[in-house]
Specification:
The protein is 50% helix and 13% strand. It has 493 residues and is of the alpha/beta class. The termini are far apart.
Length: 493
């Protein structure tokens, strides 16, 4: 099956099985048999829906089940056990949603006996269907595109993988055989005589003769990657970059994430990205573009919006008091805006109450405050010292959480200049870019600041690996107690 064939078969099969399950379990004979013989169901009345109510209930079941199983429609290799457990987990989630809907709105309600029987049937039939159509031999069906900026690395990827390659994306003009001949027949053989291929963002790179690339179709430049992925129905992108810079490398990852395409890198680049430990193929490893499941992501976003909305509403009087205090204490703006790093190396604007003198970095540039290391920063104002000690300078970031640029819990966003310096020394630092930045995190509740990047990275990566809604709640609770403790400590000082 091609990618679209698999998606259609998976989704249509899921919908058909769900509809049939409801129709069969709603039959009076099935109801009577089940409620008379099953130990648990014998306590439930045998209830069947008339045609009009059955149509509405069936449409509700189809919508919920199809939505719950969305990740399983993507063609990717899974072990049989993984297919079964993942499908059953999502069926249980769908059943829980249906039960909740029925509790609040009887219009779309399935009778309890029908819901239990339908869930039992789907727990068996849907895993069996997805096991039946799963892609067992990825090498024969996967559509892979190589994206990179270095002909040598592209050639290495072509040589190391046995998967049929659709083509490559990077150079602004295709790599022709006559270019190789011209280069190899050159009298001097110098680098300056080698054919040049331009980048899509300007500039050029010297092309050495790499025969492996010669037979691969050139698909276009990186600026057209989104269109190319759709046109060629690609399931996988293999990255062949000379360096994992923010603009090109992580821009490609962002495009792959938007299209639900698997991204792979050679093992040697694995330390600069967040990889799936359990998924690797030959010399390539999978990049974990979305550590959160979509259900968990929705729940996390709902908690973020609730937390930020309630905080902004309840603390609005305090915001006015702080704004007045800042204005009376020192000249300058009340709110201080900074550029911070975001997911996939992008940037966004974060807002804080100004706690330093106006234009504090005019002489020093972007530096980490000495107060983060327990020292004294002469740039901090009197009101700013109070705000920093009580963490109240962070309140405007609730707006960034509300608008979706940040989360309540996640690695703290860093200044791009400082982030660039740390990344130069610690390639693993880029793993933090795979999770939305947060107001607090595991590093913050353990008093780990940018003055100790090694310790901060260790805790941030630990959070990324263990992240869950429950883990987020634990961190938030610990942060609240930490803030209260710091407020009491400041009052006593």
């Amino acid at each position: 099956m091609s990618g679209w064939q698999y998606r259609l078969a998976s989704s249509i099969g899921t919908g058909t099985i769900a509809a049939l399950a409801v129709a069969v379990t709603n039959h009076p004979s099935v109801q009577r048999l089940a409620t008379a013989s099953a130990p648990v169901l014998n306590r439930l009345p045998a209830t069947t829906l008339p045609n009009s109510a059955l149509t509405i209930a069936m449409a509700t079941v189809l919508f919920i089940v199809l939505l719950a199983l969305v990740p399983l429609y993507k063609p990717r290799p899974r072990r049989i056990l993984d297919v079964v457990t993942e499908t059953q987990r999502r069926v249980v989630l769908a059943a829980f949603i249906l039960a909740t809907i029925g509790y609040f709105d009887y219009t779309y309600r399935l009778p309890r006996s029908t819901l239990v029987l339908t869930t039992a049937g789907l727990l068996v039939l849907l895993p069996a269907w997805h096991v039946l159509i799963r892609r067992q031999k990825r090498s024969s069906t996967e559509r892979i595109i190589i994206v990179g900026d270095d002909p040598e690395n592209i050639s290495k990827l072509v040589d190391m993988t046995e998967i049929p390659i659709v083509g490559y994306v990077s150079l602004s003009s295709p790599y022709h055989k006559n270019q190789l001949a011209e280069w190899s027949d050159s009298d001097t053989g110098s680098e300056s005589s080698a054919p040049m291929a331009g980048y899509t963002d300007g500039g050029s790179v010297s092309i050495a003769p790499y025969p492996d690339i010669e037979g691969i179709e050139y698909l276009g430049g990186i600026s057209r990657l989104s269109e190319i992925l759709v046109t060629h129905d690609a399931d996988t992108v293999a990255l062949a970059f000379s360096r994992t810079d923010r603009e090109e490398f992580f821009g490609v990852l962002n495009t792959c994430y938007s299209h639900g395409v698997t991204a792979k890198v050679p093992h040697e680049l694995g330390s600069s990205v967040l990889t799936c430990d359990s998924t690797q193929y030959n010399e390539l490893v999978d990049i974990d573009l979305e550590p959160w499941d979509w259900q968990d992501r929705m729940t996390k976003r709902l908690l973020d919006v609730t937390f930020a909305g309630v905080g902004l509403l309840l603390l609005s009087p305090l915001v006015l008091v702080i704004s007045l205090a800042i204005k009376l204490d020192s000249p300058g703006s009340i709110i201080y805006a900074q550029k911070r790093t975001s997911t996939f190396g992008g940037t966004f604007t974060v807002y804080k109450f100004r706690s330093m003198v106006d234009d504090a970095e005019s002489e020093t540039g972007a530096v980490i405050s000495d107060e983060d290391a327990g020292g004294v920063d002469p740039r901090v104002t009197r009101v700013g010292r109070i705000l920093r000690s009580t963490h109240l300078d962070e309140l405007p970031q609730l707006w960034s959480i509300f608008t979706g640029h940040m989360s309540v819990v996640g690695p703290r966003p860093e200044r791009p200049e400082i982030d660039r310096e740390i990344t130069a020394d610690m390639i693993e630092w880029k793993q933090r870019w795979f999770v939305k930045p947060g107001l607090t995190g595991l590093a913050q509740i353990n008093d780990m600041t940018g003055h100790n990047p090694d310790g901060k990275l260790q805790l941030d990566v630990e959070y990324i690996r263990q992240q869950s809604i429950w883990f987020d709640l634990q961190i938030v609770i610990r942060q609240v107690f930490k803030v209260l403790k710091d407020v009491i400590k400041y009052e006593n000082s």
